[in-house]
Amino acid sequence: MPFRHGVISYARCAVGSGQSPTDVDQSILKKLNKNCIRPDAAGNGSPVTSGWIAGRHVFDMDFSHESNSFSGALLAAMRTDTVAVPPALKRAYRAMAEDEMRGGSPDRGLSRADRMEAKDQSEQRCMQEIGEGRWRRIAERPVLWDLEGRVVFAPVDAEIPFNQLKGLMQETFDCLIERQAAGRRAVLEAAALGHARNLQDAHLDAFVAPPAQVATDDEGAPRKIGEFPEPSWAAGDPLDFFGNVFLLWLWWKCECGEGVVEIGGPSTETTEVALVAERVLDLECAWGVTGGISLRGDAPTRSPEAARALQSGKMPRRMGLTLAAEGQQWRCTVQGDRLTVSGLALPKSQDRPASEREAIEERINSVILFDRTFLGMYRAFLADRLGNGWKSQRTNMSEWIRDRAAGRLSKSVASVGR
Description:
By secondary structure, the protein is α+β, with helices and mostly antiparallel strands. It has 10 helices and 15 strands. The protein has helices at 26-34, 65-68, 87-102, 112-131, 159-173, 182-193, 241-256, 304-311, 356-385, 390-405, and strands spanning 8-15, 48-53, 69-70, 73-83, 136-146, 151-154, 177-179, 215-216, 222-223, 260-265, 268-285, 292-297, 314-325, 328-335, 340-345. The strands form 2 sheets. Strands 1, 2, 3, 4, 5, 6, 7, 10, 11, 12, 13, 14 and 15 form a 13-stranded antiparallel β-sheet that branches. The protein is globular, with a radius of gyration of 27 Å. It starts with 7 loop residues before the first strand and ends in a 13-residue tail after the last helix.
């Protein structure tokens, strides 16, 4: 299971109100056990049920310090059982029960009571098969809770699994969680940076002129293109576009800033993060006119197709990155507007771990370090985007896009570094 082994995907959820524990003690394990999955509940009045599992496999209910407590972090999993008997099968069982009542006389009519009894028989047969384990779809989602950082990492980008985890966290620990997409994270970081006021009139930057094509609405009627793009993917939170500009900024740093981003601040030691954009690049028109494009390969950001896409008004939605900092190197794919991470490959240990538990400890520490490094880069971007020097940087980025489209990569870009 991811976090224990393999590549990792997660959405970052902040733990808000509630008494967040500082360590995994016996009371925490008891709460997990009390709210573990109850498979019998699925199909018995509710088609879906969720609960905790210890996390080694879908039937693991053995909650213990050895299995679930790692260096100030709680590692478990949410299991969701969904029961859905195919409607065609329900109809068939009911028709078979009705045929049996007719006693071999197809023309025999059935009373309302007979039909209700046939329905009850078909439902009982479905319940029996559900109890035998049929028609049950089981999903598990690993959950890593950094207790000190008050952050939960889990693959719950979609609304339904997020709400399931949110309800389970509240029921178990009386804690509320919220996903931190780019817009929400920008609000928090801007307040910490002293730039909260600059968010009031923030809009997605127009790095190129609007597309010449005619834009249309959902019904095909012409619509006016504004001075600034209003991407449809940021409908949930209008500030989510910051994540797309962040990916573009990283792309620009890779090509014009020697692929280095400095993170940290006055109260912390500055760290250099080396990065390379590679493998994955998805772009979409921020004006909603020229559509989208997906590029794959060793260096998709350096392809002519990527250059033309930028010039036509497209913005990066997803980008593959390799990051190196503090002696570790990670590879992942990031969706900008949601700030979700997928396919995160952790560095392999130079020394063979003494035990499986030690190996898991190293992986968890690496995930937490990666997330803090990644957020450090986003914070550095926001310091630039909301700072006084952004107008100059935006001009440099626009010139870079123009030079890329013209087939030449500018070698002298002013004020690339922070």
